[in-house]
């Protein structure tokens, strides 16, 4: 993504590199969120407090949980929940203390635009990815899903774990490690958030794919094309917080 920013300027805050510049004609700040909920919350707070952003778009990868959520699909989050948050018996399992709720919503309008951008990119898949890449990862007719994205501070990569999450949270489409933290911070500050995740695996015993290759050859082209499609609209978002292809952010 940084390669598409012709005039980016780096600023280091809290050990993170923030790149301010222009992307497809829009003023943006690009940053690697860091892995895990604490890192994500710090990054979101700096974006809002230091850069004054009003809209955040987060891209990355996730493990599929929901039926039919396959490798190469994308999930656009409508709601976020921390699957590992448990302050029971004081509060109900998954409830965030002080909020009276367990989930936070994505921004409806920005998310709808992100869905449209994602669907347009997936519809042009043959032009986006070479046949060899599509064959290597079994990408045939990828779909865009909308719904619940769950986050936790562990990398879910066993069948036992993923099955337990499906039993406990049957509406969950995918699992990762940052989205719910971004959602809570954005809720606190009244900042619009939209998140799209490329499904890299099914979060089970077969989840040990070549992440470096998947990020480089699938997730990164997806993210770049989706953000380009999103920013190409007449009321494009002005801030993009994204993990670059070098790190698997889940």
The gist of it:
With 250 residues, this protein is of the alpha/beta class. Helices cover 33% and strands 26% of the residues. It starts with 8 loop residues before the first strand and ends in a 9-residue tail after the last strand.
Proportion of strand residues? 25-35%
Structural class: alpha/beta
CATH hierarchy class name of the domain at 59-181 and 189-235 = Alpha Beta
- Examine the secondary-structure arrangement and name the CATH architecture of the domain at 59-181 and 189-235: 3-Layer(aba) Sandwich
- End-to-end CA span: 19 Å
**Residue share in helix:** 25-40%
Largest sheet: 5 strands, mixed, barrel
> What is the name of the CATH topology of the domain at 59-181 and 189-235?
Rossmann fold
**Low-confidence spans: pLDDT under 50, at least 5 residues?**
233-249
Basic shape: globular
Summarize the helix and strand pattern as letters: EEEHEEEHHHEHEHEHE
Average residue-wise pLDDT: 90
Number of helices: 7
Q: How many extended strands?
A: 10
The CATH homologous superfamily name of the domain at 59-181 and 189-235 equals Nucleoside phosphorylase domain
Strands of the biggest beta sheet: in what spatial order?
A: 4-8-7-5-9
Radius of gyration (Å): 17 Å
